[in-house]
């Protein structure tokens, strides 16, 4: 098993969050609920990058910032209708998911 870090983001509605993250190329891997009607805990993945999306209170703080490195930030910017900014280290955008979590998405400078 490879060791990794998987950020946990708090979401109010996992289905809405999974659809939004789908626009970033993430695909739902699995979902867990202790019982029907209980909060969902979902894994989404984009290649080897994984995120946990949790409806459980207290699992994560609001306004979390996650940095996502991608091969083509321009394609992501086009999908979300935002402008790419050039920084010395990368071409970047910042997105806000439906629950207020921030994602800084960038392609490293060459």
Gross morphology: globular
If strands are numbered along the chain, what order do they take across the biggest sheet?
1-4-3-2
Q: Helicity level, as a percent range? A: 10-25%
Task: Give the averaged pLDDT, no decimals.
Answer: 95
- Can you write the helix and strand succession as a string? EHEEEEHEEE
The total of beta strands comes to 8
- The radius of gyration computed from the alpha-carbon positions, rounded to a whole number of angstroms, is 14 Å
Structural class call reads alpha/beta
Low-confidence stretches: none
Q: In terms of topology, how is this protein built?
A:
Blueprint: E1 8-10, H1 14-22, E2 27-32, E3 41-46, E4 49-54, E5 65-69, H2 73-80, E6 85-86, E7 90-96, E8 102-108
Parallel strand pairs: 1-4, 5-8
Antiparallel strand pairs: 2-3, 3-4, 6-7, 7-8
Structure write-up:
- With 110 residues, the protein is an alpha/beta fold.
- The protein has 2 helices and 8 strands.
- It has helices at 14-22, 73-80, and strands at 8-10, 27-32, 41-46, 49-54, 65-69, 85-86, 90-96, 102-108.
- It is 15% helix and 38% strand.
């Amino acid at each position: 098993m490879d060791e990794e870090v998987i950020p946990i983001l708090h979401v109010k509605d996992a289905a809405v969050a999974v659809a939004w993250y789908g626009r970033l190329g993430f695909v739902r891997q699995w979902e867990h609920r202790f019982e029907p009607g209980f909060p969902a805990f979902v894994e989404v993945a984009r290649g080897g990058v994984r995120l946990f999306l949790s409806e459980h209170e207290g699992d994560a703080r609001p306004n979390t910032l996650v940095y996502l490195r991608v091969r083509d930030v321009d394609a992501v910017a086009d999908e979300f209708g935002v402008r790419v900014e050039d920084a010395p280290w990368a071409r970047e955008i910042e997105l806000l998911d439906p629950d207020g979590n921030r994602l800084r998405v960038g392609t490293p400078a060459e």
